[in-house]
Every structure is written in structure tokens, then in C-alpha cells.
């Protein structure tokens, strides 16, 4: 609804205001306003505009100049601004409250050019609003900044509320943009007023319905969101809930909170007996509430985050219980119908690390998703599930929105996802993740022929912990199952034959960082076989040498392996050629070589300042060789971005 022609826009504003409940009964309304249905004044005329420019010593920006040619000022019209834009009331601001010094004093060495420009606005600004009581908190001033022009000659416009102690000024690209924002503010203030119906509200409500149907059809998602955003900013009641759902899906389960990216507030008014609110919107609001670091009491008392005045104990108790489930990562998203069945299956897949299959399961079923009512357009509660939320990336959230669902007119025939079958990730990706926040140390054990639950019992103390990501795990070890690669699936090519269980099923335990926890011992291989890797890249100080440890064990006994530590190599057992550390780490020195040549200059530099660091290429080749020999793989997305069950270890 962006407007570039002043007259129709201002006539619409006048009509909407005059038709609003109570407007005609106000004692301060000029009779000419009621008669002419016009909140403005006669046009300024070219001579008056030129006189103003001569007085100011600068040409006026285009949209303000054309505004004066339409009306010489504008009445408050339901906003906090007094008469704005009248030629005789326009003056240089002069920074009467010394705000420029305050804002410039708050800048630091990292301030951007844009921040510096805005901080200097106060001393050069042009004030368009009439003189105000700047101590009043509900007043606002309109300022134009000639020092911040755009390519069209427009000056940045500011709405400064509450005088010296007010909020940070709101910036707009032009005077027209600011006036349109004030028009939306007027509509927003009356959005819940009974009887507030006019041409604008009817158009906006039609846009909302158009956007809702387009979203369910999977058509023009961005266009639909634009319509909902405009309607929401104008205070239309239906728009907020629909906009929240679309923006949440487009951010994905790992997206930022409501304060990021200019998104709508995730907290939507509702009641606990409404399944859309209780099962979809409130879990998402609780998640964002916790991400922002707020506590339980604030969740219950905030009117934006609870359904009404918070006095209904029947609503308070389940809301608080839900918040705790989200906080403890025990919340389980459920949905009706076949889509709900698919969600349950996907949750089990994601639970043990098969996030690719979990995504395909959800995506294939979303065409059959069933909404709770007309105000429900997407399964947003899915994003609050501790296991499935991380699976729904921003790209995948968009895919779900673009899939026709809930009887959308262009719904797909079979609902299947057109995507290639996911391939095993292998192990080499661990060496590729070297930039923060990826850790510089990790350890894992792969055990053949046992379930993740059994592996957890073998290495852990106590029951499985709630699903956690890398940052939430602390010193706990995360557990899962791994997709088999294309190598020797039963390990027979690893030397010593296949004395373990047959088949290609492996489970893993994985830990990140240098937390002092040793990798599980060979005892986890009892009755089967295991592969253990422990890597610390080193090189930062003498106290942190590079380490790469590999061990293959069968039935509780180690069979072969090696440890490269600070440039020296220790070997045991009959290591197959493919895993020969002499080839994988050519710069490392065997212990016996170091002892035999102790007085030479060709030994390890482990005693020098600093420490020996793993070569990233050597690390990659070693991991790749292990994956090839044993036919194993670790799920990259699940480990780096997803949540997995964990166990505490000694």
C-alpha cells in the first residue's frame, strides 16, 4: 500500500479518521474538517514554498516539497505528532537538548559510518512539527536530516518521541515514508476498536485472506508475507498470528528470536483450550522466551506472552509446565492425522542422528497436514521440538511453506520430496570443520552391531540425558547411529578377519572439545568390535600438543592401532597398509627412531617452544582411510547442528 501521490493518500487518511468511532464527537475538531472531510489545509503554493527554501537556504527534498504543494500542514489525526509540515512552523532544530553530544559520546571505535552519520543528525536537522512540550512522554517531533540524502535527493526523516528522555529516534528513508508510518500507527491504535471499519480495513482484511490462501497453496510466499506484514503493521487482528507462523517457518528451528531480522513478536494472544495456541504458538513463544534469557515469572505475567490477565490458574499451570518442558528439552511436538504419524516417525529417526531421513519423512507428509482452523497455516510447533526443530533449517522451512497443504488448490498428487537419496557423510568432514564454533578437539567410538541404547549402557553412568546439541552437552557424550559408507562394511578388510558380528550396523558415541574426558576404552567392544578415534589438533602452546589416536578392538581387546602425539608415533598390532601411520602422518617420527637418533638434528621438535600441530591434510586422510576400511560414517548435520541423546561418563 506504499503511496507516491499525496492527495489520494491524505484523502484516505482523512476519511478513515473521520469515520472512526468518536471522531465526530471530539470538541477540538474544526468544523471545516467535518465539512470538507479533509485533515489538511489549503496548498502552500509555489511562492510560499520558494520563500521557505530561501529562508532555510536549501532546496527542500522532493516528497516534502510535493506535500506542501498539496497541503500546508497536517493535523494530528490520531497520532502523537502535532500539526506537521506547515511552512511557517518549519525551523532548523538546533538540538535544544544537547542530544548530539549524548549520541556521539555513545559511539565507540567500532561504530559504523551510518551510526556516526545518525549521531550527528541533531545539530543539522530541520524540524517540521510545531513546538511541543518536550517533557511529555506521548509527544513526538518530525525531523529531516539534510546530511543524509539518497540518490533521489530525499532526506532521511526521523520520528523523535518524548523529547530529551525519549526513545531512540525512528529513521525513515523520506518524509513520505514517515507519514505512511504515522498512518499505519493511527490504524494500529484503532485495530481492536469496535466499529472501526473503513475502506482501508476492508482492503487489508481482503489482503489477509488472499495471503492465507496463497500460503496454503504454496504460492508466492514472499508476496503473501508482504501482505500480512502490511496488515499487521496497520493493526489488523488476524494478521499477527498468520505473519508469526510464516516468519517462524522462514527462520527455521535454529533461527533467531523475535528481536532479530525485523520479525513480528512471536507471542500471540490465545487460550490454553485453543489447540492452535496451546500446541503450536505457545511452544514457539516459550522457546523464544528462554532464548532471550527470561524467567518463568516474566513468562506468566507478560501480557504479550500470556493469553489475558494471567489470573486463570487453569491456564497458568499448563503454560508453566510447557515452559519447563521446553527448557528441559523434553517437549514432544504432536499433530493430528497422517502428518502427526510422520512426525512421530521422524522424531525417532532424528533421535539417533538420522536427520536426513527425518527431514524426508516430514517433507513427504506435509501435503497431508491438517490445520486446527482457518488461522493455522503451518506446523510451527514443530520448530519447538528439541529433536525436530534443528532439522527444519530456513531453507527447509521455506520448502514446507511452498508445498501445497491442507487442501491447497494445487496440492501435489503424491506429496513426495523430489530429492536424491542422501549419501553417507564419511569421517573426513571432521577435519574440514576448523573454524569456530567447531571445536579443535573431538573423540568418538564406533561399535558394530549394537543399538545406540546398548552403547549408552556400555559407556555411560545413569539414564539417557535429554537431547542436547554440542553446546548443551558439556562433558556428556552424545549417542547415535551412523549410516554405513561404501567401504568394507563388516571390517574384514581391516586385518584379522571379521570376528565380530556381521552386517553393517554401527552406533557411535561422540564428544567435542578438550573437556578432560578420555574416549571410551576397548571394553565397549565385548562380543563385537569397535573403532576409537581421539583427535586434538594442537599447535597453540607447548601444553597442547597435537594428538591423533586410533584403535581397533575386538571382544574387549585392542587388536591394532596407533597414537601420534607431539610428532611421535606409537604403534601396536598388525596395522593394515591402508592405515599405516607412516603414510598417513609422514612428518611424525616413530618412538624407536627417536631413541636411535637421539643426538641427531632430525628428530621431533616436540621439545621446542610451542608444540607440534596436526597437519589438516593428514587428519583428513586418516579419517577418510578409517571410513573407507570400516565402511563407517558420522552424521555431520546431526552432530554439528542437531540434538542427540547423551550419557554422563566418568
Task: Note down, in words, how this protein is organized.
- This protein is an alpha+beta fold.
- It folds into three domains: 6-189, SMI1/KNR4-like, CATH 3.40.1580; 247-422, no CATH class; 429-648, no CATH class.
- It has 23 helices and 15 strands.
- It has helices at 6-18, 31-36, 46-56, 62-68, 99-105, 113-119, 175-189, 199-217, 221-233, 237-251, 275-291, 296-301, 313-328, 337-351, 355-365, 394-401, 429-432, 452-459, 470-473, 581-584, 591-596, 616-630, 636-640, and strands spanning 91-92, 126-127, 140-149, 155-161, 170-172, 441-448, 461-468, 477-482, 506-512, 529-536, 547-554, 557-565, 568-572, 589-590, 644-648.
- The strands form two sheets. Strands 7-15-8-9-6-10-11-12-13-14 form a ten-stranded mixed sheet.
- α10 packs across α16.
- It is elongated, with a radius of gyration of 33 Å.
- The two termini are 63 Å apart.
- The model is unreliable at 256-264, 303-310, 411-420, 486-503 and 592-608 (pLDDT under 50).
Amino acid at each position: 500500500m506504499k503511496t507516491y501521490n499525496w492527495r489520494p493518500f491524505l484523502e484516505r487518511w482523512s476519511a478513515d479518521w473521520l469515520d472512526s468511532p468518536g471522531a465526530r464527537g471530539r470538541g477540538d475538531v474544526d468544523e471545516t474538517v467535518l465539512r470538507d472531510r479533509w485533515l489538511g489545509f489549503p496548498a502552500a503554493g509555489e511562492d510560499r514554498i520558494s520563500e521557505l527554501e530561501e529562508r532555510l537556504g536549501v532546496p527542500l527534498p522532493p516528497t516534502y516539497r510535493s506535500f506542501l504543494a498539496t497541503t500546508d500542514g497536517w493535523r494530528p489525526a490520531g497520532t502523537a505528532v502535532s500539526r506537521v509540515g506547515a511552512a511557517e512552523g518549519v525551523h532548523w532544530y538546533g538540538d535544544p537538548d544537547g542530544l548530539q553530544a549524548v549520541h556521539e559520546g555513545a559511539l565507540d571505535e567500532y561504530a559504523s559510518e551510518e551510526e556516526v552519520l545518525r549521531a550527528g543528525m541533531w545539530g543539522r536537522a530541520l524540524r517540521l512539527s510545531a513546538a511541543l512540550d518536550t517533557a511529555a512522554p506521548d509527544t513526538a517531533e518530525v525531523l529531516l536530516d539534510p546530511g543524509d540524502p539518497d540518490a533521489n535527493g530525499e532526506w532521511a526523516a526521523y520520528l523523535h518521541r518524548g523529547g530529551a528522555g525519549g526513545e531512540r529516534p525512528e529513521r525513515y528513508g523520506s518524509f513520505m515514508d514517515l507519514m505512511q508510518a504515522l498512518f499505519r500507527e493511527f490504524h494500529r491504535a484503532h485495530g481492536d476498536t469496535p466499529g472501526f471499519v473503513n475502506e482501508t480495513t476492508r482492503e487489508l482484511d481482503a489482503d489477509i485472506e488472499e495471503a492465507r490462501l496463497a500460503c496454503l497453496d504454496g504460492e508466492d510466499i514472499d508476496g503473501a508475507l508482504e501482505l500480512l506484514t502490511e496488515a499487521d503493521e496497520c493493526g489488523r487482528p488476524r494478521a499477527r498470528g498468520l505473519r508469526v507462523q510464516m516468519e517462524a517457518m522462514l527462520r527455521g528451528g535454529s533461527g533467531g528470536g523475535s528481536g532479530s531480522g525485523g520479525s513480528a513478536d512471536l507471542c500471540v494472544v490465545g487460550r490454553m483450550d485453543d489447540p492452535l495456541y496451546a500446541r503450536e504458538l505457545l511452544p514457539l513463544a516459550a522457546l523464544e522466551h528462554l532464548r532471550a534469557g527470561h524467567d518463568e515469572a516474566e513468562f506468566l505475567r507478560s501480557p504479550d506472552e500470556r493469553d489475558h490477565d494471567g489470573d486463570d490458574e487453569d491456564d497458568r499451570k499448563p503454560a508453566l509446565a510447557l515452559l519447563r518442558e521446553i527448557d528441559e528439552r523434553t517437549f514432544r511436538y504432536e499433530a493430528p492425522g497422517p502428518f502427526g504419524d510422520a512426525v512421530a516417525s521422524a522424531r525417532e529417526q532424528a533421535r539417533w542422528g538420522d536427520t536426513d531421513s527425518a527431514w524426508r519423512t516430514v517433507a513427504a507428509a506435509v501435503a497431508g497436514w491438517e490445520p486446527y482452523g482457518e488461522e493455522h497455516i503451518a506446523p510451527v510447533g514443530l520448530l519447538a521440538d528439541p529433536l525436530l526443530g534443528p532439522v527444519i533449517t530456513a531453507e527447509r522451512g521455506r520448502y514446507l511453506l511452498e508445498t501445497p497443504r491442507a487442501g491447497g488448490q494445487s496440492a501435489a498428487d503424491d506429496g513426495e520430496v523430489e530429492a536424491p537419496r542422501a549419501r553417507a557423510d564419511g569421517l573426513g568432514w571432521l577435519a574440514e570443520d576448523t573454524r569456530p564454533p567447531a571445536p579443535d578437539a573431538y573423540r568418538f567410538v564406533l561399535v558394530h552391531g549394537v543399538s545406540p541404547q546398548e552403547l549408552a549402557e556400555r559407556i555411560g553412568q545413569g539414564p539417557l540425558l535429554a537431547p542436547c546439541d554440542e553446546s548443551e552437552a558439556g562433558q556428556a557424550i552424545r549417542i547415535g547411529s551412523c549410516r554405513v559408507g561404501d567401504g568394507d562394511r563388516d571390517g574384514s578388510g581391516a586385518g584379522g578377519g571379521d570376528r565380530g558380528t556381521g552386517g553393517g550396523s554401527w552406533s557411535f558415541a561422540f564428544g567435542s572439545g578438550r573437556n578432560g574426558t578420555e574416549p571410551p576404552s576397548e571394553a565397549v567392544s565385548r562380543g563385537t568390535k569397535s573403532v576409537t578415534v581421539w583427535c586434538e589438533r594442537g599447535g597453540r602452546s607447548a601444553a597442547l600438543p597435537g594428538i591423533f589416536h586410533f584403535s581397533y578392538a575386538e571382544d574387549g581387546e585392542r587388536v591394532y592401532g596407533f597414537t601420534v602425539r607431539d610428532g611421535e608415533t606409537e604403534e601396536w598390532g598388525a596395522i593394515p597398509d591402508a592405515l599405516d601411520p607412516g603414510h598417513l602422518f609422514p612428518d611424525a617420527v616413530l618412538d624407536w627412531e627417536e631413541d636411535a637418533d637421539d643426538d641427531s638434528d632430525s628428530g621431533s621438535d616436540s621439545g621446542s617452544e610451542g608444540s607440534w600441530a596436526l597437519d589438516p591434510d593428514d587428519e583428513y586422510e586418516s579419517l577418510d582411510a578409517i571410513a573407507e576400511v570400516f565402511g563407517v560414517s558420522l552424521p555431520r548435520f546431526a552432530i554439528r547442528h542437531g540434538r542427540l541423546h547423551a550419557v554422563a561418563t566418568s
